[in-house]
Amino acid sequence: MAPKRPEGAGAFPQAVESPAPNPSGRPPLYAALDLGTNSCRMLIARPRGTQFQVVDSFSKSVQLGAGLERYGRLSRNSIQRTIQALRVCQQKLRRHDVSRMRLVATEACRRADNGAQFMDRVRRETGLDLEIIRPLEEAQLAVVSCAPLVGRKTEQLLVVDIGGGSTELVWLDLRGIAKKDKAKAIMRLHTGFNHDDDRLPRARVVDWISVPLGVATLRDQFNDVEDDSARFALMSWFFEENLAEFAPYKDEQSREGFQIVGTSGTVTTVAASHLGLRRYDRNRVDGLRMTSDEIDRVIRSYLHLGPEGRRRDPRIGLDRQALIMSGAAILQALLRCWPTDRLSVADRGLREGMLYAQMTADGVLGEEEEA
């Protein structure tokens, strides 16, 4: 399948974990649920100043897209696993009496022949009304969530969101925007990549692309290759071939002023491995900058471990071990294509983007102070 292409801000709220319920008299609660090809994840939060406070969360590997590459449909077992997870989400939403929510599904439901029927079944059996969003909106949310990680000296920015079924890439031009306004200029893209209002500075979208290859779909395409190293190399080169029509791929870019921000389980797992974390720590991972050599060393260590070693490695985890090499293949391809010595790690994504968009639309977030 060819990559999908389009026809044509302020620091992001920092999530603060808290188990507290929502007592009366407090600001209303908001929820964001992201049903991807591999995982079902949800955040429940309330606005707090210019940030938001996480009240409850949920994350489970449901492998909704298992077998999709081969059969073109969501399997009975995948559907059952996912509905069980969504029932837990529904119970949390009811228990917290959430007043505002955005519940979305992405690539697996976009591609599956029975995606729409699955949405109907979810509605009947859980009462949750999920919407299948377009790749364009998925890319917009990824960009918005990464805005605070952008350096003040950055002039060209590549935001990469490696999902289970697809990978979104957005190239932004920040030249001509004051250093103190760069994060805000990116955040304003939550209303769309194309705009007519030039009164406020906005990042210019040079190009974007949604490649229908994520950690699960890329792995499935090369499941028949037995040799671990050969499979990894084939996945990496195959992913690069799918970037051929992405405009910034065609011309060599300057290293100076160029930054890549990566958001995905792959990127955060590689970062945790680099730090030697036995127990994942978001505060140490989110915002970390890794050099290309450091990333390469981690990937080579994964290859040296082999499938059995990766399964036993606590830094990778049981949920991630089956997908880490396809994600690493995508990451290696990106670093091979573009001239950067560093990658910024973002432990954030669609859920945070959706929470911010809802709270901004309702005017419940405080005004951000000028830098």
Question: Any key phrases for this structure?
Answer:
single chain; 371 residues; Nucleotidyltransferase, domain 5; globular
Measured by DSSP, the beta-strand proportion falls in 15-25%
Number of domains: 2
Q: What is the mean predicted local confidence, pLDDT?
A: 86
Oligomeric state as shown: single chain
- Tell me the major beta sheet: 6 strands, mixed
* Total strands: 12
C-alpha Rg, in Å? Answer: 20 Å
CATH architecture of the largest domain: 2-Layer Sandwich
Morphology: globular
The CATH superfamily of the largest domain is identified as: Exopolyphosphatase. Domain 2
Share of helical residues: 25-40%
CATH class of the largest domain: Alpha Beta
Distance between the termini: 44 Å
CATH fold description of the largest domain: Nucleotidyltransferase, domain 5
**SSE order, as H and E?**
EEEEHHEHHEHEEHEHHEHHEHHEH
Q: Given the structure, what is the number of helices?
A: 13
Structural class: alpha/beta
Describe this structure in words.
This protein is of the alpha/beta class. The chain has 2 domains: 15-134, Nucleotidyltransferase, domain 5; 137-346, 2-Layer Sandwich (Nucleotidyltransferase, domain 5). Helix content is 39%, strand content 20%. The protein is built from 13 helices and 12 strands. Strands 1-4-3-2-5-6 form a 6-stranded mixed β-sheet. Helix 7 (215-221) crosses helix 12. The longest helix has 21 residues, at 76-96. It is globular. It starts with 14 loop residues before the first strand and ends in a 9-residue tail after the last helix.
